[in-house]
Amino acid sequence: MTQKIIFFDIDGTLYDHDKKLPPSTKQAIFDLKDKGHIVAIATGRAPFMFNDLLDELEIDTFVSYNGQYVVFKGEPIYTNSLNKEALVRLTEVAVEREHPVVYMNHEDMKANTPDHEHVSAGIHSLKIDYFPNYDPGYHENNDLYQSLLFCKDPVEKEYEQQFPEFDFVRWHPLAVDVVPVGGSKAIGIQQIIDKLGIHPENIYAFGDGLNDVEMLTTIANSVAMGDGHKDAKNAAKYITTNVSEDGILNGLKMVGLLD
Asked: Which residue stretches, if any, does this entry annotate as coiled coil (predicted)?
C-alpha cells in the first residue's frame, strides 16, 4: 500500500466544539497509523497548546501557528517570524485603540495588558491550561510566529490596510490571528511535503475554519467538516458529517483511507 500523509486541523476538526476528542476520531487516527500512513497536525495553535494531544495520538509532525512553525519527526524544519518593526507599530496603534495584543513564540505567550475581558474570553474559549502573563515588551526581544489582536469584526480590515506586512485571520468574535503576510498552513505543509517527497495524490487534509481555506484549496484530497465555515466547505473537495457525528471517521471512509 502506498504511504499517505493526512493533515488534521485541531479545533472543530479533531476536537469537537467542547474541545473533546471523539472516541471514533481517536480510533480512526490509530487505524491510519496501523496502515502505515503518516498523521500530522495543521493548526493555528501554538505548539505548547497541543502537547497533550500529540502525546495522546503519538504524533511527532505538525504545522503550527498557521504555517509559521513546522516540526517534522520532533525537529523544527521551518520558521517564519513576524516583522518586529511592524509589530511594534501595530502595538502602538492597538494601545491607542484599546485593543489588547498577545505575543506568541514556540514556547510561551505574553500579553501587553495585565487583565482584559476580551483576552480572557478568547483564551478560555480554547479550553487550555495556559494563560498569557503580562509582559508588554516581549515582542521587542523575541522572535514571534503569531500574535493575537483582540478587536471585533470588521475592525481588522483597518489594520490590514495599515499593516501590509501581516495577514489577519479571525478565529473568535473578539480576536484575530496576526501572521506574516503570505504565511499559511498550505506553505507550512509544503515544507513537510518537500522533505518527504510525497506525490500530491497521496496528501490529504481535514479542516473547518477560515484559516483552513488555503490548505483545503491547495490539497486535492481535502475534506471539510459538516459544521465548518461555509468558506471552508466551498474550498474542500469533500464535505463530511459534523465533527461530533463521527465526522473524521466518515470523511476518511469517504476518501477511501479507511473501510
From this structure: none
